[in-house]
Amino acid sequence: MAKGKDVRVRVILECNSCVRNDINKKSRGISRYITQKNRHNTPSRLELRKFCPYCYKHTIHGEIKK
């Protein structure tokens, strides 16, 4: 079975506010989550509200490229 033909793929979600704060060096790190998505049902980039331990609140986590 070919690697690129799978319907469910693993994606990495990264905190959007930590990435912006990384320029100012206010954040201690960048929060990342690993999850799966169905390529046919969600062809666009995935965005979920997850808890960020560095911001101490729920923020938008967007899909990044591997």
Task: Outline the structure in words.
It comes from Aconitum chiisanense. InterPro entries: Ribosomal_bL33, Ribosomal_bL33_CS, Ribosomal_bL33_sf, Ribosomal_zn-bd. This is Large ribosomal subunit protein bL33c. Belongs to the bacterial ribosomal protein bL33 family. This protein is mainly beta. It has one domain: Ribosomal protein L33 (Rubrerythrin, domain 2, Single Sheet), CATH 2.20.28. 14% of the residues lie in helices and 44% in strands. The protein contains one helix and four strands, in the order E-H-E-E-E. The protein has one helix at 16-24; strands spanning 8-15, 32-38, 47-52, 57-64. It has a four-stranded antiparallel β-sheet with strand order 2-1-4-3. It is elongated. The two termini are 21 Å apart.
Number of domains: 1
Could you say what the CATH architecture is? Single Sheet
DSSP E strands, number: 4
Quick one: CATH superfamily? Ribosomal protein L33
Task: State which percent range the strand residues make up.
Answer: 35-45%
Query: For the report, how would you describe the main beta sheet?
Result: 4 strands, antiparallel
* Percent range of helical residues: 10-25%
**At the first level of CATH, what is the class?**
Mainly Beta
**CA radius of gyration:** 14 Å
